[in-house]
Amino acid sequence: FYPNPASDIIVIESKNRNISRVKFYNNQGQIVFETDYHSEINIEKLPAGLYIIRFFDSPGYSLHELKVMIE
After folding, report:
1. What is the rounded CA–CA span in Å between residue 71 and residue 64?
2. pTM score
3. 44: Cβ–Cβ under 8 A, 6 or more apart, which residues?
4. Comparing C-alpha atoms, which of 45, 50, 55 is closest to residue 19?
5. Could you read off the pLDDT of 5-49 as tens digits, one per residue?
6. For residues 9 and 2, is the Cβ–Cβ distance under 8 A?
7. Residue 34, by phi and psi: left (phi above 0), alpha (psi -120 to 50) or beta?
8. How far, CA to CA in Å, does 29 sit from each of 13, 18, 33, 39?
9. What distance in Å separates the CA atoms of residue 30 and residue 19, rounded to the nearest whole number?
10. Structure confidence by residue, pLDDT tens digits, 51-60
11. How far is residue 12's CA from residue 43's CA, in Å, rounded to a whole number?
12. Which residue, 35, 34, 29, is CA-closest to 52?
């Protein structure tokens, strides 16, 4: 995915066709944003900080995890 750090939109390029949900977690482990999977995700409403992004399949299993810095 790119850019990192990001400020308004992140682009996620994945060959994994099973991704259905994307969840953003703050540094306290709380879900602060959740959306259906899209190749571009608008993050401009999230406050600046470090976030963990987790990708989930339709049954709800975590597939992958990334960190992103939002400015």
Report:
1. 23
2. 0.89
3. 7, 8, 9
4. 55
5. 999 999 988 877 889 999 999 999 999 999 999 899 999 999 999
6. no
7. beta
8. 24, 24, 12, 24
9. 21
10. 999 999 998 9
11. 12
12. 29
